[in-house]
Amino acid sequence: MGEPTQVIPVFSGPQCAPSNPFCWDWITANWSSILGPSLVQHIYITLIAVVVGLVISVAAALFAFSRNWFAGGFLAFSTFLYTIPSLAFFLMFVPITGLSLTTIEIGLTSYTLLLLFRNTLTGLRTVPRSAVEAAEGMGLTPQQILFRIRLPLALPSIMAGVRIAAVTVISLATIAASVAPLGLGKPIFDAIHTLFDTELVAAALLTIALALVTDVIVVGLQYLVTPWTRVRR
Questions:
Q1: Which residues cross the membrane (predicted)?
Q2: C-alpha span between 7 and 191 (Å, rounded)
Q3: How far apart are CA 46 and CA 184, in angstroms?
Q4: Which of 1, 6, 15, 178 is the most exposed, fewest CB within 10 Å of its CB?
Q5: How far apart are the C-alpha atoms of 180 and 224, rounded to whole Å?
Q6: What does the pLDDT read at residue 20?
């Protein structure tokens, strides 16, 4: 068998050699048709998975806070999901939901549950006893204490889980493109098939940049919603 054929992507303007690791002409010519839309899709895919995972995890943690049997069961279930290899997990749902965005989101959301549930429950359980006693002294009911005291004070732990979950989803979403050609994984897989280094490097760098920017945004959001953590003694 001969060597794989190297395909040079065609666009209006100067062509780039496949072995060129970074051809700026190709990037500018194909930003609006390939890289830009793929980046937007990747952000969309990530947002859905993290938001849905956060809603499920916070609801489960609130329910599990006073029910240890549920906490242990959900933690074991989410840990089991987290240990399944990503590609196998995505392909497992293909017979049910097909090669679709739904298949991708089921897998990505499942990977967020352990991170978000564990951090949320830990945050609820580590609220200072003095804060709870002060709330009880003010006549607040257990439910009011849970939503007005424990949940707000658990925000730093919850946001830490969101940081890890978001970056994890961004990376796994590139693998999910093997199921449905969506997100930055699509140009990465296309570049692997055509042996075109510029498309591969550009998409990979965009994925890394998106993860870094997302981490900074979540940290900034945590800074805004938890002002008490910035108080200097």
A1: 43-65, 72-93, 99-117, 153-180, 200-225
A2: 9
A3: 11
A4: 1
A5: 36
A6: 63
SS3 assignment, position 163: helix
The CA-atom distances, in angstroms, between 59 and each of 63, 70, 92, 127 are: 6, 12, 26, 18
187 vs 34: CA distance, rounded Å: 7
Check whether 81 has a pLDDT greater than 70. yes
Encode pLDDT of 144-174 as tens digits. Answer: 888 888 888 999 999 999 999 999 999 999 9
Burial of 25 (0-12, 13-18, 19+ CB in 10 A): middle
Note the CATH number of domain 24-230.
1.10.3720.10
Angstrom distance (rounded) from CA 190 to CA 38: 12
- 164 within 8 A of 216, measured Cβ to Cβ: no
Q: With contact defined as beta carbons under 8 Å apart, do 194 and 7 qualify?
A: yes
Cα angle vertex 165, ends 162, 168, to 5°? 150
Nearest to 169 by CA among 94, 82, 100: 82
User: pTM to 2 decimals?
Assistant: 0.86
Q: Is 166 in contact with 109 (CB distance < 8 Å)?
A: no
Interval 66-72 mean pLDDT: 87
Q: Which tokens go with 57?
A: 């995890």
Query: CA 54, 56, 61: angle at the middle one, nearest 5?
Result: 90
